Amino acid sequence: MTVSAPAEPLVSRTLGLGSLRFGNSLPLIVVGGMNVLESEDLALEVASEFQRVCGKLGLGYVFKASFDKANRSSIHSFRGPGLQQGLRILARIRDDLGVPLLTDIHEPGQAEPVAEVVDILQLPAFLSRQTDLVLAMARTKAMINIKKAQFLAPREMSHILRKFEEGGNDRLLLCERGSSFGYNNLVVDMLGFPIMKSFGYPLLFDVTHALQMPGGRSDSADGRRRDVLTLAKAGVSQGIAGLFLEAHPDPERAKCDGPCALPLGVLEPFLGQLQALDTLIKGQPELTIR
Active-site residue 69, yes or no? Predict the structure, then answer.
């Protein structure tokens, strides 16, 4: 039996997080930061610049970074500061800058302690079918960002949503991050956006991870940073709740996913163009073609 998305969203949900409102018809929210916490000073630098630019443009903002990258290609790859030190750095960013936080977890036992510090827990793409992890995250009652696995079709996200709902949590965001296309390549199918939106939850687009070329280097992923604006415009044109992206002041020296990261120095003109496109798209009347 196949599972098909409904033709129309049963409920067009708006999720609140403090003063922020996530909704596919609402102004774009930026979930931005760095791939992994490299140092406290660098995290504060990146978060401060995102906050400055988003404040200037009037965009809602959530800082994101990982305390542990548990799925690196090589055992020698940098993973981050770990749970205890990572949560301390994230808490400082929250307290010093007053911004909401998002980070991913990898084990059920991490859900409760991370939810005490972070506003949005992220279910990693590779782990999105792990039921024990899903239920542990659901029990925290925190907002959840569900990354669509590279190996799942958009309509299959309904199963993961149902697990969270049956676990007692419907504070859910969906996030597109590309699909596996043969070896060492990802593609983003824009026709998947309306399918995921049809479930009624706010949709984010992780534009920088969608630029990955998994296994493209000898011991790490490669990427296509030069195409980030092209892909971001395509995603924002679909009328989504938020853009998820990573930036770095020196991407060539980033300790994880540098080939995909946006140079921090171009963040303001980059987001300015996408905000203008988002305003244009959401100012158009809905047009249904059957």
Answer: yes
Q: Is 35 a catalytic residue?
A: yes
Q: Structural domains in the chain?
A: 54-214+222-247+257-274 (3.20.20.70)
Contacts of 224 by beta carbon, 8 Å cutoff, 6+ apart: 211, 213, 259, 260
- pTM of the prediction? 0.92
* Separation between Cα atoms, residue 243 and residue 234, nearest integer Å: 11
| Catalytic position from the list 68, 104, 222, 257 | 257
pLDDT one-digit tens code per residue, 265-290: 999 999 999 999 999 999 998 888 88
CA-to-CA separations, 149 to 116, 176, 206, 215, 279, in angstroms, rounded? 26, 8, 12, 16, 29
Q: Catalytic one among 64, 69, 163, 255?
A: 69
Answer yes or no: are the C-beta atoms of 34 and 46 closer than 8 Å: yes
Above 50 in pLDDT, residue 128? yes
Q: Is 68 a catalytic residue?
A: no
Active-site residue identified among 24, 35, 145, 169: 35
CA distances from 207 to 31, 114, 137 (A): 11, 25, 24
